[in-house]
């Protein structure tokens, strides 16, 4: 079965079961400052999982474009990609486990034609520590479905990966794993989830290839083994829990089903092809590259990165040195370097782009070939000006460590992956951790230089000259006022407001946050009144150092784009048991809110990336 047929059959299957088909959301997340890219099908559905009614009903299906930068270094094996598509069906408080598992089993075995004897499933063993019970309903449903297909489905209680690799399959079909594997939320396991996040037990489906077990991955094989014998192709999440500030869990207002099926992986199973790059999703792209003299790993990197770049460009991302643009630049420059090292004409990349548009344009009309080629050519022209100089500089080095690698990046734009691949033996001891450590060191130096402009975030009065002391006091008042306004707005708007940056001078404060609409003048006035009431109450402002997890579990807000250290400082406004605001922050702050003065919100406006901006002053 072709990949095109699988896409269409999935949409037709769930449309026939009263699901409304919706188009893919952008790879640029809307109203979500916690992540750079849309990395799962559930991200755009978050409001509806939390109870907001979907305008099109309780049953939705889609094919969602997704991108995960974490997998860049893994690309080159038989299963990892950066860009991928997720087949998704959703129940927002409608059907539950019985319907979901039966439907997805029917789709895979009857519509796609996968042999049910090659399918294995995992279910949730429970989490006693967090009071979340074992899933007994899903295994009973699976047992019946397999038996109806003529397959005896025994259960194996593996619980942990260490256990699984010791005891093996036990001639079983249904496997229990703990929260490390069969729990799904954006933030991982129950213990690592921040307050306010939804999550729930899941049931994963694995396809078994005719590949022998590799004992280097553990003595015995099992569905979650990484040896290549098993491939996860789908996951039904039964999202019914929400984490509370005290670390416990409560049931959501509604029970949700969130299914995600990896399109490329289901295609690999349908074609019984353990290497996804040999499926018809990638093979037409691979065939464009020269047959001789080019390593298969290199071909996979070029096709994956070209495919990802095409979709990122189509969604409006441009190469740059920041955030999404930085990731796109890494992908494009890695393609350019691999072409250079392997004697591949860049015209081949144009041909790959054209084939991508030919194959996917019907489903994703935003793929514009001229826009994609133009962006790639502009980056290539810009990169070539420094690339050859960087290579010459690299050749002069006897060895490459984190310091020299970052200097090559900063001076010549050579990304980490490029340096490691070009340097080869010279960089045998270079790790990404070394590179990132040096990058962070330079960022800290830059922040210190910008400290006077932005105020707060680690600046101390002792760092300032006497002439700056008065300015520092003004910024300190405005810094605490920012925390108060954010908390006041959240109370008025009735939801968390992911923060997307701030800028504090001696004259005014400014901060950005994600919110889907304009804040009305009435709402701004309400927030301003609440803020000034907090000032009038002269509440204490206290600081406390905590472990990061402890801080987040206590309800402290954070800039989720930032990577925090294991120990953080938390500023609390109000009493410990009845606080008004609590945030991770480096300071400085006033000791009591009465020191701030009257707060006036002067402006609310839209800024780029779906964010809103507030400006305010204090008297």
- Average pLDDT over all residues: 88
How many distinct folded domains? Answer: 3
User: How would you characterize the largest beta sheet?
Assistant: 10 strands, mixed
Strand proportion: 15-25%
Number of helices: 17
* CATH superfamily (homologous) name of the largest domain: Bira Bifunctional Protein, Domain 2
Structural class: alpha+beta
**General form:** globular
Under the CATH scheme, the architecture of the largest domain is: 2-Layer Sandwich
Low-confidence stretches: 449-468
Portion of residues within helices = 25-40%
CATH class of the largest domain: Alpha Beta
> What is the radius of gyration computed over CA atoms, rounded to a whole number of angstroms?
26 Å
Number of strands: 17
How far apart, in Å, are the first and last alpha carbons? 70 Å
CATH fold assignment of the largest domain = BirA Bifunctional Protein, domain 2
Describe this structure in words.
The protein has 17 helices and 17 strands. The chain has helices at 3-15, 46-49, 97-111, 137-148, 161-167, 263-270, 283-286, 296-314, 323-341, 347-360, 369-396, 402-412, 416-423, 432-454, 469-493, 521-536, 548-553; strands at 20-21, 59-67, 83-92, 119-124, 155-159, 174-177, 183-184, 198-208, 230-243, 249-262, 499-504, 509-514, 541-547, 567-575, 578-584, 599-606, 611-618. The longest helix is centred in the middle third of the chain and has 28 residues, at 369-396.
